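Lab notebook page, bench 4
Experiment: in silico fold of construct C2
Operator: M.H.
Input chain length: 297 residues
Purpose: comparison with the prior construct
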Amino acid sequence: MTTDLNTLLTALYVKIDDYLAGRPRWGRPPKLTDAELITLAVAQALLGFTSEARWLRFVPDHLPGAFPDLPGQSGYNRRLRAALPLVKEVMRLLAADTDLWTDAVWVVDSTPVECARSRPTVKRSELAGWAGYGYCRSHSRWFWGLRLHLVCTPAGLPVCWALADPKLDERQVLIAICDHEPRLLADRPGLLIIADKGYVSRELDHFLAERGVRLIRPSYRNRTPHPGEPLLKAVRQLIESVNDTLKGQLDLEQHGGRTIEGVGVRIAQRLLALTAAIWHNRATGQPVTRSLTAYDH
């Protein structure tokens, strides 16, 4: 365990514990507090443990005394799934505590989240009806699962996200995301959203224009290019690199979820880990905002 990771986890625990202080709770208090649970989940994601059983065996030897009352695997899994709303709250808490939160430029894209490969698994999966078959153009492959629709700042800070059937239109999902939290748009006058060609839509343009938001994406070959369009490619690659961080360093596609709640909290867990790293890097003045290198070993 690195000193940097210990520092991040300590700061994160204090931040969450202060946030939850005084919040009423009914029933017998758990031995592992909510603040400890969320901190433990972030550490698991940063260190790349996709198996909860292996993670709970690892903690006592490598974080001695930090989490004295660890639950068993089933208890940890149950607590984590129930904590999905809290994970989302903490993600927003950390994001809003950075100077990046008010950025007036967003980048949006979607990426596959595979949930099964074999036909028998697909047929008996509890995700049937939510997950489905989709095509990934960037990797030229079909997959069964969901799509993660992610809106982030150019620095990679997640702003909002959604998991959806891969057959759903990206443009409709973006409208739903914006409609779900209208204050996100209202609090950012002159907001600019950068996307790829998949977001070309008069309906989407009209929806955003009514809310004072401008959407920029590459033009089709038979259309006149927008001014400054050659610069879009470099900006759009930013969110590609964010997706690469989620998949390459935070094991997004090895989530292991088998239920709606299980997949949801495991994706949120990884997004929270990324948000926590960015939050800590900004607070400590690190030169690379989205770097996880100091925390992944």
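Observations: The two ends are 6 Å apart (CA to CA). The chain has a mean pLDDT of 91.
Next step: discuss at group meeting.
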